[in-house]
Amino acid sequence: MAIQLDIRAVLKRKAPKAHIPGFVIRYLERITHIKQMNAFLQRHPDERNYDFIRLVISEELCCTSSIEGTENIPTDGRPVIFVSNHPLGGLDGMIIAQMIHESRKMKGENRRLKVIVNELLMFMEPIAELWAPVNKVGHLSREQAVAQQQMWESEADVLTFPAGACSRLQRINGKWQIADLEWQKNVIQRAKEYQRDIVPIYFEGRNSRFFYTLAYIRKLLHIKLNIEMLYLVDEMYGAHGKHFRVHVLPPVSYTTFDNSRTPKEWAQYLKSLVYATHH
Question: 263: domain CATH number?
Fold first, then answer.
């Protein structure tokens, strides 16, 4: 039997005491494309993991991608951390995960990959086992915290987006640019603690002007709630038929991150490496 997504059930689980008016529910159902997503799930009730992702990208969204630098994906058997800019907020993660999986498979490897994502994506059950959740609005449960610890101690590769959120419109050096927010230092701390080299990735892509305008206005009004996040599924469907380019850079050894810079400074160094690919 096909899984069906239900906005009401998700909201009830996340905010059990909140009363949300029907018109709000209907609007959320529209911008999250629930009918289209459920129709897709009905057509593919048994697909899981990378087969599911492949069908989402190729059939549901009709997107294509090209990859440069797959030779930079290590083959020495040691687990690594893949880090990437985060221009799209969802689809980019699926495309990169699929790319890494296909590259590994072509090289005769079957290494697992865990993708660190917003906890809300765990509701997409067919691919939930690929994700490692981060709770943006609270604390991880004890079970989730234990699962993350086990992930870092395992032989699985990890894909993470150090900005912690998708790219925003920003004024940088006097020019308006779409770029990640500051990269977080924990990726450096994990690399050193678990002796994992880091493979930087640059993903070419952008969301709609509406998305960036909404995010900018929210910031101007000092609204803390990440309203634009509600539109990420709509942005994903808006990418229908697009082509994306992905660039894999040479690995950076964890031994690079010495005491000459703070972890925060090393994280910005990584970010600058990624963006230098494009500029």
Answer: 3.40.1130
